[in-house]
Amino acid sequence: MTDIPKGWIHREGMGLLTDLYELTMMAGYFKEGMGDRQACFEYFFRSLPPETGFAVTAGLDSFLDYLSNLRFTKEDIDHLRSVGLFEDSFLDFLRDFRPSCTVSAIPEGTLVFPNEPIVQVEGDLIEVQLLETALLNFLNYSTLIASKAARICQAANGDPVMEFGLRRAHGPDGGVSGSRAAYIGGCSATSNVLAGRLFDLPVSGTHAHSWVMSYDSELESFRTLAKQFPNNCIFLVDTYDTLVSGVPNAIQVFREMREEGLDFRPAIRLDSGDLSKLSKSAHRMLVEAGFKDPLIVASGDLDENLIADLKRQGAKINSWGVGTKLITAWDSPSFNGVYKLVAVQNGPDWEPRIKISSNIAKTTDPGRKRVIRYYNSSDEPIGDVLYDSGEEIPWRGSIIGRERTHLDLPAKIDGAARGERLLEEVFVDGVRTRSPKSARDLRQRVSDQIQSMPEEYKRLRNPEIYPVLLSRNLVKLKGSLLAAEIR
Q1: What domains, with CATH codes, occur in the chain?
Q2: What single-letter DSSP state applies at residue 269?
Q3: Stated pTM of the model
Q4: pLDDT band at 80 (very low <50, low <70, confident <90, very high)
């Protein structure tokens, strides 16, 4: 269920979902007769959020949906004419514009690492230039939230994590795309009902403090909730006093439900206070009352670090509701994905292009590339290598390469039992070439990949750096371009 109704995001058109400078460059290419020159751009990110060992790519399906329907409507053309920058001939070109590029991508839900191409776009320069802003918009935020969700779910260590972030999300669009990304990253459910419908996500939630405060007593509020929703009954017990009134009142209603013969799991939610201490006391009270397997949900400004601390303290919490610090990626609220020109076609040949910076980490890797992931005999990923599109690829053994910022220092990946091509064609000549995966399938893909990843890359603090190397050919190419520029 990936189609978003027009009332949500108007997918017919969206040509103006771009920065103005993309259109001015397009107009310049058009006037200079360069628009149909073939070019290759790559989307990658330069660094991971702090203390993070990997990212989870997300947002590709939404981008391809956008691309499949990309048009400039009459209203778009009229607006661009009012801007006063563009000639009629260019606006006529936009009126008839239809995407015809080729897009290759690492599949959504894949673990990815800095400086490797996640999306590769080839086609007319005027078209692939246009796609920069939208591609970054669709992939950067979703990848950020999917990666944060995966990290939080790792800290929860198998406990379900519910995404509660809609009210703190960056607008309705961020709320919906963020809920999908959080689910892909590992969350078990969302409170966002619209995202649940659009993407077939499990939804979860019961009541707020206002429900309790609306009644004359806390006990009455719990009894009413149990009467109306006996199969979805999680009592929020900290409106007044968690241990003096909240938990005792919940126990009273659980006893009444049991006497009525209802089949249920006793469940409470803690949203404030010392969650470790309160959960232990609440658990003891519930067990002593005869409820041996209570569900204790914690919420309230949680993130992976607090969850990990609570688990180390032996907190009796077995489900987590995470909102603000997930949906906003609180500690690193932007993802530094970029979209760079790496090659242009000159006659039958492709010429590599490089962007040079005084910061060596920002100097790009030139040329059209392939990304190969290597696995050891236990089928664990052990490193990725970027190859020039025309070179021969080794598939096993010791894989020789170079660090991208230390071109003169040898590096290698030992013990490769097999290699896997990560980039695959997903859009050709205006048509998607692969059916979209459901959010549930993508979530399972992420889970499987994290499970196979060696533990050292999954630490919440100071994870090992996963190797991403350049092949010998790419090293020679990059070195020669750098030397030519220096001369």
Answers
A1: 13-147+332-486 (3.20.140.10), 205-298 (3.20.20.70)
A2: E
A3: 0.96
A4: very high
Higher-scoring residue by pLDDT: 2, 423:
423
In this structure, what are the phi and psi dihedrals at residue 469, rounded to the nearest 5 degrees? -110, 160
SS3 percent helix, strand, coil of the chain, rounded to 5, is: 40, 20, 40
Residue 244 carries which side chain, given as an amino acid letter? V
> Would you call 249 exposed, middle or buried from its count of C-beta atoms within 10 A (0-12, 13-18, 19+)?
buried
Q: How many helical (H) and strand (E) elements, i.e. helices and strands, does the chain have?
A: 15, 23
- CA distances, 350 to each of 346, 353, 438 (Å): 6, 10, 37
Tens of pLDDT, residues 215-264? 999 999 999 999 999 999 999 999 999 999 999 999 999 999 999 999 99
d(CA 91, CA 134) in angstroms, rounded, equals 20
Strand duo 70-71 + 13-14: pairing: parallel
Please give the C-alpha separations between residue 224 and each of 229, 296, 337, in angstroms, as whole numbers.
8, 20, 49
Hey, what amino acid is at 259?
E
Give the start-end residues of each E strand in 291-368.
295-298, 319-322, 337-346, 349-352
The CA distance from 221 to 212, in Å, is: 5
User: Would you give the end-to-end CA distance of the chain in angstroms?
Assistant: 55
Query: pLDDT for 380-434, tens place per residue?
Result: 999 999 999 989 999 999 999 999 988 988 899 999 999 999 999 999 999 999 9
CA angle 468, 133, 469 (to 5 degrees): 5
**pLDDT score for 5:** 45
Closest CA relative to residue 101, chosen from 135, 72, 77: 135
- C-alpha torsion sign, points 107, 112, 114, 115: negative
Residue pair 45/338 in contact by the 8 Å Cβ criterion: yes
Count Cβ atoms within 10 A of the Cβ of residue 305 and give its class: 0-12 exposed, 13-18 middle, 19 or more buried. middle
Helix (H) / strand (E) element for 384: namely strand 381-388
With bands split at pLDDT 50, 70 and 90, how would you rate the model's confidence at 11?
low
Which two three-digit tokens encode residue 487? 């001369």
